[in-house]
């Protein structure tokens, strides 16, 4: 595989600057082709696995909200021929590069079983990440389940200067909340075993009612994200939503992640996965 000088130096693409915004590049470009990275460690994070990798050939600071296509370097095709395709994952941390894996299918289970010293194939970072919060606004992060991953990277980029509302199935899954290093974290669980008994959007409604200058950053199941968008519209608060979608390629060829907006259809892997709440139909 080739490696450009820009990729070697961690050079980032041209920044998208908006009035009142601090400047960080919204999209960091990926080196061409697939590359191999070495697994540094694999440890439990509640119900999930946290995989740290040494990606010395990739950009040093991917934008929070971007994603990678991952496949194990060995044993990817099992006896039944599965899995065939790489899987998309947002990074939960950039230094070192780390991913949160929920082992629910043949691909994610294979990735979750990787051990230190083994290899993982990467393509990325891909897509458009979060824009920085407006000057004077408090970044309010809203996550559900495995969707907390890009929020962990965002909290890291913001140096913890943010608040987080995180929802999980139960207390065991909620142990992963430690990966979102915000100055204030509130939790909700479906079974009431930790924090608020109910939905994370219940916590969001209370926080917005309390008042303040917020900008929302959210990732999780699509019904949760659409509820966040409705709450943001009602409170006249800006919101950036990182959607999850199945995809075969990660770079716009397969159209498996086609997503409808007010302006028409977009591909989440290219124009997303972060979508402005105002653009939802």
TrEMBL record:
<feature type="domain" description="Dihydroorotate dehydrogenase electron transfer subunit iron-sulphur cluster binding">
    <location>
        <begin position="244"/>
        <end position="280"/>
    </location>
</feature>
<feature type="region of interest" description="Disordered">
    <location>
        <begin position="1"/>
        <end position="35"/>
    </location>
</feature>
<dbReference type="InterPro" id="IPR017938">
    <property type="entry name" value="Riboflavin_synthase-like_b-brl"/>
</dbReference>
<dbReference type="InterPro" id="IPR039261">
    <property type="entry name" value="FNR_nucleotide-bd"/>
</dbReference>
<dbReference type="InterPro" id="IPR037117">
    <property type="entry name" value="Dihydroorotate_DH_ele_sf"/>
</dbReference>
<dbReference type="Pfam" id="PF10418">
    <property type="entry name" value="DHODB_Fe-S_bind"/>
</dbReference>
<dbReference type="InterPro" id="IPR019480">
    <property type="entry name" value="Dihydroorotate_DH_Fe-S-bd"/>
</dbReference>
<dbReference type="InterPro" id="IPR050353">
    <property type="entry name" value="PyrK_electron_transfer"/>
</dbReference>
<protein>
    <submittedName>
        <fullName>Dihydroorotate dehydrogenase electron transfer subunit</fullName>
    </submittedName>
</protein>
